[in-house]
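agent> fetching stored inputs for the magnesium ion docking request
agent> found them:
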Amino acid sequence: MGGGSHTDLIAALVALGGLVAFSGLALYAIRRAKSARRRQIEDSATALPVARAKRPALRPEDVEGGATEAEPTASDEPLTTAPSSEPLPTSQPASLFASPATVPREAFPPRHPAAVSPPLAPVTPVAPPPGRLSSALPVEKPRGPERPMPARKREVAALVPGLERTRSGWVSRLGQLFASKKELDPALLEEIEKVLLTADIGVRTSQKLLGELRESLDKKAIKDPAAVWTFLRRRSVEILTMDAPPVAFATAQPFVLLVIGVNGSGKTTTIGKLASKLQSQGKSVLLAAGDTFRAAATEQLEVWGAKVGAPVVRGKDGGDPSSVVFDSVKRARAEGIDVVIADTAGRLHTKTNLMEELQKVRRVTGKALEGAPHETWLVIDATSGQNAIAQAQVFTQAMSVTGIVLTKLDGTAKGGVILGIADQLRIPVRYIGVGERVEDLREFEAEDFVEALFGEASVGERHVS
Ligand SMILES: Nc1nc2c(ncn2[C@@H]2O[C@H](COP(=O)(O)OP(=O)(O)OP(=O)(O)O)[C@@H](O)[C@H]2O)c(=O)[nH]1
Ligand SMILES: [Mg+2]
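agent> prediction call returned; pasting tokens
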């Protein structure tokens, strides 16, 4: 038993020793682990670029053809070496930092909070491989269906509301005729004649168009109603198209524009709108208040002058309009103003003294500046329909009219008068008025006008153009 207890004692001592040794080892292991962890934490705080270098990045071998040798690596260029004036976002992968020689500074997003996590896309051109250049660089894609409406279509679309009354009047009636008839027969021709004669185009121009139509039918050049519609559209464009160069405002200093027309036709309003347009194009404008006849006419022009920032030269009420225009041209010459627009009185054209007065204005303007007025525009109110053609004839006999402005097309179904005026006077229509806003004075373009007038919407379901 004594031997057994001795053996037990030895076994207990061995076990205790083993326990102590194990505890020591365990303690040592824990300490090692702790210090390793501490070092790891310290390392991760000081050697961030190295850690970041492990993030997915463009490497030479990733890129077909390889990167340039000058391309710095992450370890070559730690975060602290990034230009201090514009630090790169901290989440930017270090390996994507390229030297200024290979990546333009603009390739990086600007400094703002959203730049904390910049998309990688801007850095893509770090080293575009020659073979993949076209796909690596931004390429202007061919424009798809989202392409903005071409300028011409926009012009036409803008005109349509202003011509709505004329469109829904005789143009629509014509359209319905063609939509309901499949065959071209004498009855259809008679119907067309009726519509044209009531369309304010004027008897002369309507008869001319019908004569041409019959001739084309006889020659079998026109075979169906759709071809008649096409014919009328084409002839309208031809009638409205004049061989006139655009108004060359820059050819004289000042360029003098005389505006004439019966009272209420829209002269003063047109002058104000035009002055606004010219000023917005960078031309300086002076307005001459040549209507000394009508009470408040000058004030009306002054309101426009103040609105668009153009000086207004005025005379005495009831005074001589030619002296106002003379003074205006002299002042514009002295002050280097680009354009003078002269308003005039609009007493009824049947009173011969108005025509004499206008002729005097023209002569005196020429004395203030040789060659002036450079243009004389007749403003015609479209709502007066065929009367407008008669008015225009009286004015053009007395004055050398170089352009027509047809106003108030938005307020009438008599827009066809434009065809009669253009056909009989052969004077270019320069502007049309389709409303009271400045932008409603629109430069006249024959094709756009006809498109807006005869567009598909007028002819119902059937596509005949
Ligand atoms: N709806 C519409 N109204 C217009 C247009 N052009 C002018 N007007 C209006 O027509 C009216 C007469 O215009 P004015 O510019 O005073 O006409 P005016 O020829 O100078 O008239 P007088 O000075 O009396 O000879 C005004 O109420 C204008 O606002 C247009 O294109 N559309
Ligand atoms: Mg006026």
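agent> quick read of the result: Residues 261, 263-269, 291, 294, 297, 346, 379, 407-408, 410-411, 433-436, 440 surround guanosine-5'-triphosphate (ligand 1) (CB under 6 Å).
agent> awaiting further instructions
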